[in-house]
Amino acid sequence: MSSSDTYDLAVIGGGVNGCGIARDAVGRGPSVLLCEKEDLASATSSASTKLIHGGLRYLEYYEFRLVRESLREREVLLRTAPHIISPMRFVLPHNRGLRPAWMIRLGLFLYDHLGGRELLPGSTGIDLRKHPAGAPLNPGFTKAFMYSDCWVQDARLVALNAMDAADRGAEILTRTECVSARRMGDHWDIVLRDRETGGERTVSVRALVNAAGPWASQVLQNRISLNREQSLRLVKGSHAVVPRLFDHDNAYIFQNKDRRIVFAIPYEQDFTLIGTTDKEFDGDLDEVAISQHETRYLCEAVNTYFKKQITPDNVVWSFAGVRPLFDDDSHSASAITRDYVLDLDEGDGGKAVLLNVFGGKLTTYRKLAEQVMQKLIPYVGGSATSWTATAALPGGDIPNADFNGFLAGVRERWPWLPQQQAWRLAHNYGTRIETILGNATQPSDLGHDFGAGFTEAEATYLMDKEWARSADDMLWRRSKMGLHAGDGAAQELADWIAARGAPRTEALAQ
User: pTM for the whole thing?
Assistant: First the structure.
């Protein structure tokens, strides 16, 4: 689409909240621009525990409203994105020295009933001496509880929201930084800089949303030049990936002596994802990584429960992100609320309004976007009717949200695809798989294979449709093929990208 110089709404930040807001807004009628200084989901939104969940442990902190909203959203999102979101059962072994069984039963009863559960099975008790989930565990654990939540491809959730926003007319600018934003009477003048070309462009907008995640306070002070009292506490969460520790498809949630919990989740078929930590963060937001202490902590946490013991040497990949949590004066990082706060600055009589997004969690991004628009519609116009709860995300328009039936159709349509590759492509792209595979009748029709079935056809799709510009974008955010494709894949893919030339459909003026 051609670039404009005037918009109703601009969003700073290409994480899950920013992209969700852009999607919701443009679907109501206003013109929308979103800028992200790096790739979509390049920070916190791709560094989660990959869960769409109510937050069982938040019940201990009496976060009933947040848990209720999250549980309801869990099933909404499962219906609208059944390709990238999957039901998962979680096993909580009872550790006699920690939370008593009656407390866990009460918490699970609330968890089953707070959100009006319809699609997912409820909780139950299991005997670990007889259930397959008990086989990998140390013999001292004999009782467990099992409940339901969902697993998600977090970075793809962000990309799909951006795709849908663009399909509906929004302008999505990646690798584009907001240099400054100034109130000019009844509008904002925003200077944008393309970080690849150095080109700058000034746009005028009626309303501005600061959804920069961990950078929200920096954007407020350094780009918008409004001095506000610090509203965020930055908490780092780190994860480690190790070779698969168990052979079934259930996940585990383990209690620790420090009263934190750690998940062990089946990941990318061959691995187990372990996380997360909660550590106050005051470092460079562009240099976030797991520490040796955190790696040891995660290994020791799972070693308390599993027969198979691991050390930091077993970690094949790790990642860390900083959660921008609203500062509620909690005494510890674990106790800080995961709820969100929307701070509306009406400017001069409701002209050139600013809305700051503080806090939030992956599961509630869609509801957060709805509430943002409820606040902004009086200023930017558009429909007051919410619409995203029933609108499928790109690729999610699978009849009856029946992913297994859809996968069977994929295998019938392209029977020559290896089973694992068909499964992965169906999960990543849903009905958009047609754009990648089309009329291909053999593997060679998909072009060069960079490793483990990641082909030129897929890479082309990601560049043309999903703003991917680098090997990292493709191998570690749009997919996790970096775990499978081999050591030389990243360089080979980078060379291919350089030779092809990255499209800039929304390039800024030089």
Answer: 0.96
